[in-house]
Amino acid sequence: MIFNGSPKAGGNTDFLIDRFMTFLGEKDVVKFVLREMNISPCRGCEKCSMSGRCVIKDDMHDIYEKIEKYRFFLFFSPVFFGGVPSILKSAIDRCQPFWARKNILGKKFKVNKRKGLVVLIGGTSFVKGYECAALSVKWLFNVIDVAENKTFYYMNIERHSDFLNYNIDNDIYKTMEFFGESER
């Protein structure tokens, strides 16, 4: 599963995802472009603590279904003020039903050996901002039992040409190796 957490179409996050997709291919890859989806913020109603299901009717239910079935998760996001953009944070917050299932209702995921990748893109070299942004996604990984994860930081990226300062092909190779190309 690929999550595009950027609110900007055609920006650096889209550029990098397109680059990864040329190697990963479209087969067996589900991509969620969150800016194109109807995702409401969590209301904090705690109804998911009773049923393990969210009562809000929107596009998150498709995401819930896929999270339960998939093993590999790739989150691509720009860094905004040391965090992920609100559209990605809302989707993460809406995964509260998984937390409730795991911690209150005692239900475990049927799919195991999950792996995740966090890819963060920003216009600064302030590492702490990237680390803070990564924590939001890693918190979700903990909740959905993604035991193994890696993080890539693409810093000082203002335009697509700034990616030339990175060996993206090598990062893609490392990603495919991490996820185990034969296991996809």
From TrEMBL:
Organism superkingdom: Bacteria
InterPro entries assigned: Flavoprotein-like_sf, FMN_Rdtase-like_dom, ISF_SsuE-like
Domain NADPH-dependent FMN reductase-like: from-to ranges: 2-107
Molecular function per GO: oxidoreductase activity
Annotated Pfam families: FMN_red (PF03358)
Record's keyword terms, sorted: Flavoprotein, FMN
PANTHER family in UniProt: IRON-SULFUR FLAVOPROTEIN, NAD(P)H-DEPENDENT FMN-CONTAINING OXIDOREDUCTASE YWQN-RELATED
Name of this chain's protein: NADPH-dependent FMN reductase
